């Protein structure tokens, strides 16, 4: 019985030492951010026809994300998570004036097509959500290789995460 208690004590001490070692914080405690952290996040955006007055193909707001590329060099992804217009493409941002665009005929990864994104801009604090929260807006134009010559206009706003702001619906102005 005494040997069993000694073995249990050693096992307990060994387990505690593993937890102590695994909690060692070591390394850089402030890894910093990415080059596009000022614009990275989730958005609600709608694709509009070229007139900017009617939704493309009867669509509604879908959740988009903007996030850095692995290069961390002022390039970022515009990604609708394959929800609507199948848009996942790289853009380059000018952080001083919050404008962005892509190279002509940039690969679009969901539809295995190309897209050209132009006139991209983010405006700070220019939209008020249903909850009354003032957030940023995003605008950009897209011409897809599957519909050459048609430039769709995207507009949207920052996602707050508040329940009353989730799943907004677009209505014509």
UniProtKB/TrEMBL annotation:
Q: Name one Pfam family in it.
A: Lipid_bd
Tell me the keywords, alphabetical order: Hydrolase, Signal
* One GO molecular-function entry: hydrolase activity
Domain of life, per lineage = Bacteria
Q: Secretion signal: which residues?
A: 1-23
- Keyword Chloroplast among record annotations: no
Q: Output this protein's name.
A: Lipid-binding putative hydrolase
Q: Which organism is it from?
A: Ichthyenterobacterium magnum
